[in-house]
Structures are given as C-alpha cells and as structure tokens.
Amino acid sequence: MRQQFLFSPTLRDMPQGADIPSHQLMLRAGLIRQTASGIYSYLPLGRRVLNHVEEIIREEMDKSGAQEILMPAVQPSELWEESGRLNDYGPELMRLNDRNERQFVLGPTHEEVITSLVRDELNSYKKLPVNLYQIQTKYRDERRPRFGVLRSREFIMKDAYSFNPDTESLARSYDAMYEAYSNIFRRCGLDFRAVKADAGAIGGKGGTHEFMVLSDVGEDTIAYSDASDYAANLEIADLPDTFTESAVPDEEVKSVHTPDVRSMDEAATYLSIPHDRLIKSVLFIVDEEPVLFICRGDHELNDIKITNALDAETVRPADEEEIRSLFGTEPGFIGPVGAFDKVNVMADYAVKGLSSGVCGANETDTHLLHVHPRRDMNIDQYGDFRFVKEGDPAPDGEGTIQFAKGIEVGHVFKLGTKYSEALGAFYLDENGSSRPLLMGCYGIGVSRTLAAVIEQHHDENGLIWPQSVAPFDLHLLVLNSKQEDQMDLGEKLYEILREQGYDVLFDDRKERAGVKFKDADLVGLPVRITCGKKAGDGIVEVKERRTGEMEEVHADNLADYLSSLFS
Q1: Within a 10 A sphere around the Cβ of 396, how many other Cβ atoms?
Q2: Quick one: which of 504, 412, 408 has its CA closest to 447?
C-alpha cells in the first residue's frame, strides 16, 4: 500500500475526552473516528487489524470443530419474551418497532435466536454435538460509553453456541472452547488470565470463565494466587474455611451508649477498637424473605456470593423502612444478638474466629461489647459470603491472594438447559425420550481485543503491534522522495518485498523525514526499513519497533535478514 493514498489521518495533539492509551492512539494513528457517543467508524488501518484478529479467531474456532454462520442483528422481541429476558436484561437492550408496530431488539447477544434456529433441526442425539459461531456487530445502550471501543454501544463480537446431549459432551465442548480461546489470545500477543467468573445476565448454573487481559485500565479486578495458577473475578473469588471457633470471653455482654455511631469507621474510632473486632450486620431481602448476614467489620459482604450460596433468584439490601419494621431501630444499630426470633442469621466464616466482638444492639445509639458467636447468637449457617482481600489465603491452599486489574476480552459459559427449556429446544435420546439440549455459550469481544492489544503494546511514541495482528508487516520509508537513488531503491524493494509475501506500507509521501519517522513510530509496524543517504550504495536501515534495535543491511541481504527477524 502506498502511504500517499492511505486514508489514515493522524493527529499530533492528544484528543480531548480520550482518557486511556488505546483510545488516544487509535484516534491519533488514524484507526478509528467517532460517529456518535460510543459508536465508531473503523478506518483502513483499524479494519486491517480487526481482519487479522478475526482470521486468528476463525482458524482456532474451525480447528476446534465449530462451524461459522451469520445471524440477524435485528431480533423479534417475542423470542426475548419466550426466554424471559425482555424485561430482565435492562435498559442496555436497544428496542425498535417496524412500520407495522411489531417490536424488535438490536441483538446484544444471540442465545434466543440460535436456540430458535436449531430447535426444529437438532431433534435427535444422532445430530449432536454441534457448535455454531458467528462474528457480528452487537448493540448495547451503555449508560456511560467510555474508553473508546472498550465500552461502546456498537461493537464487534464473536459468539458461539454449543448444543450437547449430556453433561460429559458439554464439558468436552467447554474444554475445547477454553483451549481455543487460550490459543487465540496467545496468538494475539496478549498477557491474559482465565479466571472463574459469575454468569451475570447470560445466566446458567454451570462453569464459567472470563479471559482477562492484565492492564491497569481494566474495569475488573482479578484475585489470583501468588503461588499457583488460581485466578478468579473478585466478585466470586473463593475463600476457604480456615477459621476455628475462639474461646468464650470471661466478660458478659455489655451494652454501651454510642450516640450517632452508625458506620464501622465511627464505631472503631468511638470505641477505640480495631475493625476486625467489629461485627457488620446487613439485612438482605432474599427472594422476598429477610435474612440477616454478618461478617467482620474489616470485611465486605458480597451479594453475588450470597445469591449463589442460597441459589436465590433475587437478592437486595433491605431499605430503612423494612429494617425498622423488623428490628425497631434505624440502620447502623442492628445486630445478630436476639435476632433469631426475627430473621434467619447467616455468618461469614471469619465470624467464627471472633472472641470478644462488638455489634449493634438493635437499639438506637447502642452497641454491645464482649459478644461471642456461639454463646450470644443463634447462627443458622456459616459460609463464604464476603469479598476476598489481598493477603487472604488462596482457596487451593497455595500462596495468598493478590489483586490485578483486567480487561475482559472473552467469556465461556455452561448454560445448561436455561434457554433450551424456555424456547422448546428438545431432542430424542437413544431410548426415544425427549430431553432439553444442553447449551454452552462462548464470546470474544473482537473490537475489545484490538484495544487490549494496544493497552499492552505501546510506548510514549505510539503503537507497537505484535506481528500476528499488525496492519502491515513492514514500513518502507523513502526519506527524500526528490532523491532519485532513494526513490529507485524504494520502488525496487517495494516490489521485491511484496513478491516475497510481505504486506508493505510504502511511505512515498512528499513529507519531511521527521514527519515520516514520527508517523512510523505512531503507526507502530513491527519493522521499519529506511532508504536514506546510503541508498546509492544499496544500503538501508532496518529498525525493530519493539526493541528499537537498528542495523544497516545491504539490499541484496535484506531477504535473509528479514527472515531471521520474523522467525
């Protein structure tokens, strides 16, 4: 490609409103332009990178046995009513009506459409298993589109759906996708972790993993072991029960006046005690029933763990009116002592280790001292109900928990029968019995992956593309297009390198050398070849963008030199 014809407008100044490197560099290097908030056009360089990412995805998906299809982005609302997600999905679901006032949605995902597609086709165990995938534009009406294509309202996604006759077959499909995803992100040059995760709005009660690219700009926190390969999303990172019951204190429970002391920080300061001696009490409404959850004052209760532990449909904190009606006091002063006649009490494992705890007295402006879990409370169940903290023991018994930020680029789910039962996708087994298809769901954010690559591969001068996804292999520069020897050598090398199979961006523009060098660093192709003052002697300068190493090479030896670089 001759750069004088390339539609890739670069920017010298930092774009306003671009807060992270990937957004800044995609704008500055001419990969994208914003059309509306959270909606972008991909220019030639950006589209070429997307093509390479998609090519890697297709190769690994096809190798796994998956088959590519293409489904419509516009989906009938009736399908979402069948699955029960039309109202549950939330305001992110984009809705529209056609000229006949029939309701449709713009697909953020395709579980409903794919299930309706196969329910009349995959009707026998002889046709299973099947894994179908597509690469397509998705739509979500994000409340706050930001970070460029990392959180946008229109994005490119690869989604796949497996249909299996039994749990063993589903496990094999899931493992094949897990391996394919690992290969895809490795080939894209990413440093990532596959972490245990929550299924969220997609649903399903089986296994699920998120593929997280390590990055300080990530919106997710990963909890990982510093001594093993354990990793999980912070929301569901496990905690082992390592606490033993403490000795009962000699002191009896004592009531103490604590005026306007409602928070853990206020209680610790007022009573001059550490947070880990306090007992935090939070009333949750679990499937419309009140349940009191307690944990140590230095810990935070986790509603996702609570939801999963109790296999609940809905979990929410109680409001002030609900708290007053049950406990006769205001929030901040409720506690587990004497609560057994009002609600069930669930305690986090760490509460067992408290010897002389402090909790609310179920009376305004009053706390209780010297509280012991066994002596003074009626606890219905202990469990893992809190968020992990750095330094907690890893659940596999190896090392301690550390935190890192991550960008989610992929997610694999075992959906089970959630959608097949709702939409009537059944098959006949070997005995002629009708059974619901077992489903798996596997997604990759293609445009997100592009941004994640940039977050991990850039410097102060611009992009540094891994070879596998770079828009071009080589950047060939002629420093002075008015010099005949430089142009002759440049034209000759452009033809030879293309014949050798390289994808070449040829900077033949009538620009100053400084401009060309700056643009080359900004665009960040793996190797730069410069035809300069020694072009008359057949010598060019070859520079690796990643290492900055430069070497003068004679044109006759260039092919061998490039082979060694790209190998």
Answers
A1: 13
A2: 408
Do 115 and 188 lie in one domain? The reply is yes
SS3 for 81-132, per residue? HHHCCCCCCCCCCEEEECCCCCEEEECCCCHHHHHHHHCCCCCEHHHCCEEE
State whether 129 and 231 are in the same domain.
yes
| CA gap 445, 164 in Å, rounded | 24
Q: Is residue 208 part of a domain?
A: yes
- The domain boundary residue, chosen from 350, 383, 416: 383
| 79 and 195 assigned to the same domain | yes
| Range of the structural domain that residue 276 is part of | 254-383
CA distance 457 to 455: 6
Residue 373 covered by a domain: yes
Is there a domain that residue 105 lies in? Answer: yes
Rounded to whole angstroms, how far apart are CA atoms 230 and 101?
51
Per-residue CA distances from 93 to 102, 105, 114, 386, 439 (Å): 16, 7, 18, 31, 23
**CATH number where 361 lies:** 3.90.960.10
- The structural domain count of the chain equals 3
Residue-level pLDDT, tens digit, the chain, 567 residues? 999 999 999 999 999 889 999 999 999 999 999 999 999 999 999 999 999 999 999 999 999 999 999 999 999 999 999 999 999 899 999 999 999 999 999 999 999 999 999 999 999 999 999 999 999 999 999 999 999 999 999 999 999 999 999 999 999 999 999 999 999 999 999 999 999 887 654 444 557 899 999 999 998 899 999 999 899 989 889 999 989 999 999 999 999 999 999 999 999 999 999 999 999 999 999 999 999 999 999 999 999 999 989 999 999 999 999 999 999 999 999 999 999 888 999 999 999 999 999 999 999 999 999 999 999 999 999 999 999 999 999 999 999 999 999 999 999 999 999 999 999 999 999 999 999 999 999 999 999 999 999 999 999 999 999 999 999 999 999 999 999 999 999 999 999 999 999 999 999 999 999 999 999 999 999 999 999 999 999 999 999 999 999 999 999 999 999 999 998
Phi/psi of residue 167, each to 5°?
-65, -35
384 with 227: CB under 8 angstroms?
no
Considering the domain architecture, whether residues 96 and 133 belong to the same structural domain is answered as yes
Residues 232, 179, single domain; the answer is: yes
Tokens of 333: 């002063």
Residue 8 lies in a domain: no
**For residues 326 and 309, is the Cβ–Cβ distance under 8 A?**
no
Q: Answer whether 485's CB lies under 8 Å from 539's CB.
A: no
Q: How many C-beta neighbours within 10 Å does residue 65 have? A: 13
CA distance 344 to 385: 15
Q: Beta-carbon neighbour count of residue 374 at 10 Å?
A: 11
Domain shared by 186 and 300, yes or no: no
Give yes or no: residues 88 and 211 share one domain: yes
Contacts of 328-331 spanning 24+ positions with Cβ under 8 A: 328/362, 328/363, 329/360, 329/362, 329/363, 329/364, 330/262, 330/364, 331/262
CB 244 within 8 A of CB 214: no
Q: Which of 160, 183, 157 is nearest to 66 (CA)?
A: 160
Domain co-membership, 67 together with 129: yes
